[in-house]
Write a structure and sequence with these properties.
Elements (H helix, E strand, L loop, with lengths): L1 H14 L5 H20 L4 H8 L3 H11 L7 H23 L1
């Protein structure tokens, strides 16, 4: 439950950052990392949908995260979280330019 609350707070905070692409996309990437961390912790997708309902961009990130495999080892989980954050950052920066 705490992670879901933090996820909602992160969503609110990245919506309020400056319009600069790098700053905005860093916030989106951070949110994506939290979503992927919850994915790797085996949270149900429906829980994230409930918390993020009404935020279409965030729901897209949830869908993308749940298309990724669930890893067992902490090292593999950490790598997947970093990979996903970088992927989302790249998509965001490309869209902003």
């Amino acid at each position: 439950m705490i992670k879901l609350t933090l996820l909602a707070a992160a969503l609110l905070s990245f919506n309020s950052v400056a319009d600069e692409a790098g700053v905005y996309c860093a916030g989106v990437s951070k949110l994506a990392g939290q979503i992927m961390e919850m994915r790797q912790d085996n949270y149900e997708m429906s829980e994230l949908y409930t918390v993020l309902s009404g935020h279409a961009g965030s729901l897209t990130i949830v869908k993308m995260a749940y298309e990724s495999p669930l890893y067992l080892g902490d090292e593999y989980k950490a790598r997947e979280i970093t990979r996903f954050k970088n992927e989302i950052f790249m998509i965001c920066v490309s869209d902003k330019n």
